[in-house]
Amino acid sequence: MTDRFDTGVAHPARRYNYWLGGKDNFAADRESGDLLAKSYPAARIAARANRAFLRRAVRYVAAEAGVRQFLDIGTGLPTADNTHEVAQRIAPESRIVYVDNDPMVMVHARALLTSTPEGATRYLEQDLRDPARILATAEILDFAQPVALILVAVVHFLPEQEQAQRIVRTLVDALPSGSHLVMSMATTDLLTPELKAAWDESLRTGRSDVHPRTREQFASFFDGLELVEPGIAPVGDWRPDPDAEERPSPVEASIFGAVGRKP
User: Fold this and answer.
1) pLDDT in tens, 85-102
2) What domains appear along the chain, each with residue ranges and CATH number?
């Protein structure tokens, strides 16, 4: 967890805000975002596509799967159609816990992450790398009832696959039958050879902190879960809205997304 607010160091939540066209970011975040965009020119399109996937996945889990509790880790800065807004439009009694490790997110969360009278929202300033702490402090959630665990565009900041799998497994193991895992993750599988080489170079030189996974590696996070149709897909192709204004290609939104149900 971050102990102080350092505007001179880029943070993924603020960089993501920059790509989405927000104003809650600093020079370091914009510089980092622009550097990454040189390697992956469609970064802004991908950010929007990933956000749209989150909305559709939450809508599915709330409306079709009937889940009323959400644990959203790596939530980022509040913007339009946050998890609680999507879920509580469908089921006002929904309860949502947001988790992020950027103090700036906490400031905005206090003001913007409100709730319906029937439901509840909470924000925890915690780190994905300490899943036990997250589970212990998510007090408004009843872990005897299904929970939707949301890990959208956050696990790819963990460089080691083994560590990432262990963290996700710890979280999923704590959830009861009927819970869902909503997850998205960057990949270079869908890129052209030239774009993949540029991404690899940005990682090698430290310009990027996003560690992409192959389809096989991404699928491993869903071991033991029942994948919801259409299974693993580029985020733009996961149950797309037919009337959406933007439908990015897999190259533009080189991110895998999926939803799995715990039997």
Assistant:
1) 999 999 999 999 999 987
2) 12-261 (3.40.50.150)
